[in-house]
Give the backbone structure.
Amino acid sequence: MRPENYKSVEHPPSHEYELNFGPNHPGIEGNYALKVKLEGDVVTEAKADGGYLHRGFEKLMETRLWMQNIALVPRICVPDPVPMEVVYSLGVEELGGLEVPARAQWLRVLHLELSRIAAHLFTFGGHAATTGMYSNMFWGVTDRDYVLDLFEQMSGGRVYHMYNVPGGVRRDLPDGFLARVSELLDYLERRLPQYDDLFFANAVFIDRARGTGTLTQEQALSWGVTGPNLRACGLSFDVRRDDPYLVYDQLEFDIPTETAGDALARTLVRRAELIQSIRILRQVIARLPGIDGPIRCPLPNPLAWNVPMGEAYPRVESSKGELCFYLVSTGGDRPHRVHVRGPSSMHAVQVLERLSIGTRIEDVAQTMFSLDACPPEVDR
Amino acid sequence: MTDIKYESKGSLLRPFKALAFLGREPVTEPMGPRPASENYRGFHLNDWEKCIGCGTCKKICDNQAIRMVSIPDLPADPVKGIRAERPAMDYGRCCWCGLCVDLCPTGSLSLSREYVHTCTEEQISSYFILPDPKGMHGQGYEKGWAKTADADLIDLERQPMHQLAPDERTDSFAEVVDGFDPQSALLEASRCIQCGMCHDACPSNMDAPQYIRAIWSDDLEAAIEHIYDTNPLAHVCGRVCTHRCESACSIGIRGKPLSIRWLKRYAMDQVGHDRVRDIVSKRKAPLPDSGKIAIIGAGPAGLTAAYDLALQGFQVTIYEGLPQGGGMTRYGIPEYRLPYNRLDDDIDIITSLGVVIHYDTWVGRDISMTQLEQDNDAVIVANGLHLGRSTRIPGSDHAQVYSAIDLLRKITLGEHFDIPQRAVVIGGGNVAMDIARSLLRLQQRTHGRTDVTVTTLEARDQMMAAADEIEEAEEEGVVIINSRGPRQCTVDKEVLTGLETVHCISVFDAEGRFHPQYDEDDLTLYGADMVVEAIGQAPDNDFLGELLTERLEWVRGRLKIDEEGRTSEPWLWAAGDAVEGPDVIHAIAGGHRVANSIQQHLASLRKASA
């Protein structure tokens, strides 16, 4: 029944509309959002809308002692916290002239590569989920948990390890730890063909990922793309090899690349990187028992530690790309300024905004996951 | 592992292989807590027996999750550096980084392997807990993250202090300890965790954390400011203080306490005397004449009281019987420990504030107590302990049997006495070490050889002398014989030949009273041409005069004072060794106390008359 005074209204055609994609959306990574304009189901405009996870870490770090900040930095990127700890420590070491003992450097590499594996497994799971393949997400999260078990034994914490401190690391390995790492690597090598069956060699996935979110090398370079995303555009650049830190110059590993620059290329680079991380870890397991000595250089009292005046800009290769900290000390007991140059803030803002245009709405999530952007690090 | 080519079209059937997983056990963790790893960082454990309530955990906590809670039932002992406080954790803030564990000076704090806590909304306060050894829910979870040598963030080692080698120092009274160079001082100061146990333990409540932090910041003038807040004898205390602060230092529990005394000395030595005088002169209140005070004795107590009162605008006159000021720090402590020019600097600061000192003026001989009472608003007795006690053993009245305190005074005054070829000292305290090491130097200088033996009643571990004093004395060649009780000074044809001793089985009885037991059969004679008794000192109170002595109240030979230092006479206060026993920092504290009391007393009188 319609009221008697009912008059039908002429609406504009409904194929143009705006959509809030996130922050509470199963297809978005973390608390992050895109405001997209659509024509039909094709994106015509996208605007990154972050800030939901802003915790003010850079500012907070200025108020905390140099040592206290070790509890803060891993929280900048939840799925891959270790590079944060390491790069902060490298910066303070550079400013303070601290020499990290050899054993600590090897332990850091062990820790970093385990973190890369955990982060990639997580991303594979997430990426699969955005293409509707939830089984692979469960696999990725489960297998990542086995790495977290190792983190727990190593550092006492599963997610936030706070294991690296300026000058070295906080604990030596528990008994039998390397054997357990080795077992995990064996397990992952057995698992990888199963991942291939389910996901990487899945015609549905390949079809969906190929051609989605394509970046040219030129675009990648001018938009600040780094890491696997850059290597998927054909540029073989990896900080571990091209500006080596810790003991990466003593390790053998390849830098996998692809040329197509799309979601599929990026995923295949990550898959190959996981294999390379396993290869690195095998070398660490072989070499580490022969490297004795302290795990940390002597440190000043954390309550009375003035780091000499200066600035440092160390960089490491995180699972998501090039991660740098700009640290400024005015010679005080806490940083004067910290700036985090994280890979995700490039990937999730300027790159994602541009790559989303022209894709179909169902591929926006996949584009974001294929860029492996980490919202807590965008906002920090 | 095979590569997957980008060009590959993939397979539609291969994913179905994963159906095989339907027949497998699911990857599911069982309900209930899963055991955590050995190093797990769970809820805190705190061993209350080990914890001293220093609050260092609170200082390093990133999130201000730790609060120190006062627990009245616990024993507190400022002298030992123990507070009746324990850390309480707010688990709404804690991030389980474990820095509190790594920086805990005692090692009492650790993290357990327990990690589950849930509650209803009404029980939300259960997130605020006081960790004990039993863990958050009293379920005895094992330790997880605990202190290891690798991860300890406390620097347990002291910066080395350079001092003259034994053979360089025994032929002169040159100062033994060199003092810190700027780099070592900064590093030593950086060890401080600012717990303030030293402040609580210091009789004068010196705020050592403040001046140590200032030294660490290389702001030595600020350090001087902090030092002069509570101690006008900074050179003296920087060298010869009995450093209660260091005994209470939290870092001393597992390592070597901070060299607080040498740090104070460093600040004083680095900032020139003129600059120190400028800094201190600014403290003088621009007050009108507040009153007249007479002080008997220019030792640490008298000088401290004079400093406090002069700053508050009083006219202070000190009467000192000896030719120079400093009291026992000059006439008791040898110059190799405290160079007298440093003492002169301390006294100069005090006189620069307007304090007048009449030297060589004995109260009772040159000016009477009645006169002092009439001319002043208040009088302070700070006469010290300048009489040596005697063992009263047979032969102790021989002319070659000296009291240590008389002999030390003679050495400072430069009075002549025959330097013995062989000397025996009776006593195991710091005075015994002082006289033994002084005689040894004089022997080396006069005879080119040394022979000094110290006999102590106490066993080695009971000796009253400071450990570094004993060590340095032995390095220099002093022979220390423990557990020997003096029996007699042997005299042959009126010439002193030595000291006969018996074995001392125990010094104290079951109740801890002084009651030595001897084995009379175990006799040993130590040959000597001089015996020195260093078994304690007594005050010389004759100057008070019979009438006043009669009127005053006494406790076991000492003037009776109340907690503010007042005697039973309303115009007379007393402080220092004479009423509290020998200790420089206690004397300084006493000086502050009487100065305070006098100010309040006179202020209340003025108020009443106004």
Remarks:
- The mean pLDDT of chain B is 89.
- The domain at 44-129 of chain B is CATH 3.30.70.3270 (Alpha-Beta Plaits).
